[in-house]
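Reader question, answered in our methods column.
A reader sent in the components of a multi-part assembly and asked whether the whole thing could be modeled at once rather than chain by chain. We filled in our standard form and ran it. Here is what they sent:
COMPLEX SIZE: three components
ENTRIES:
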Amino acid sequence: MPELPEVETIVRGLKQTLPGRRILAVRLGKTDFIDDPVQLGELLPGCRIESVTRHGKFIAFALAPTAPAANSDAPVHLFVHLGMTGQLTVRLAADSAPPHTHVRFALDDGRELRYTDIRRFGRIQLVADSEVGAFRDRLGEDPLEISEAEFARRLGARHARVKALLLDQRTLRGIGNIYSDESLWRARIHPARRADLLTRDQLRTLRNAVRSVLQTAIRLRGSSISDYVDAEGNPGSFQLRHRAYQREGKPCARCKAQIRRTIVAGRSSYFCPVCQPPPRAQKRARQRNRGKKRRG
DNA sequence: AGCTCTTCCTGAAAGC
DNA sequence: TGCTTTCAGGAAGAGC
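And here is the structure of the entire assembly that came back:
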């Protein structure tokens, strides 16, 4: 599943070769995950790719029309979200494309940018220049850039479970199921703990854990669990460093207790029952509160 | 406010 | 062996 480190790796790869290239043609397969496929096909041919950037898990292409024949002279941004199984690769146009390749952007150097997505949980949309700000504002802070104080402010007052907040793209942008579990394991915090009941120390530790996990994962070019590959089609290797995610029954790397799996925020959540004690005190507090409500 | 459930989709793995 | 069922999950929306 592409999360921040995977998307960052892909973007770094695309930045090497795409800026300055012109899109000659667009070929579409299935289009049910594209906001406006007709507009995509009409607007993009003739556009030059100005830049490639990452916003959370989104990949943004800034496009500028070049030919006078272009259908519009307004710059536009193409936002791509890879969902679960999306891949963006640059290949020679003559090379055969894998199954489930649904979008092919022919480039002016004989190659093409391809979007492949088995499950089509990804999204592709065009965003007008004037709306890019609003689009980005819907996302929270980048977890690699957020300050300690801002991290504590964003999470520390919330009653929600800490894992739900890590996954919420409006709180922090870019973290998914793998890196939330890996960060919580490193910070020794149970995923179901309420964020507002964490200590200052725990919030600081968690922020640092998130940073170091993401930075290491970027260095190792992401985690390849099932479908992830970078822009050149190569897998990452951070999955070899996973300490919690998908390690149910395996020994904790710190204390040798068996990693357990539970459901938090509707997602499989892996944790060490010894290093990351479940929130018993919270449970008792909730039971007391329920009692009070019934009586009151 | 925050939780749970549902929907989208395919393929791998488990169950029979 | 071969079919059917289950599960995985990012995000959005509904309903409680």
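What stands out: The longest strand of chain A covers residues 47-55. DSSP finds eight helices and ten strands in chain A.
Send us your own complexes using the same form.
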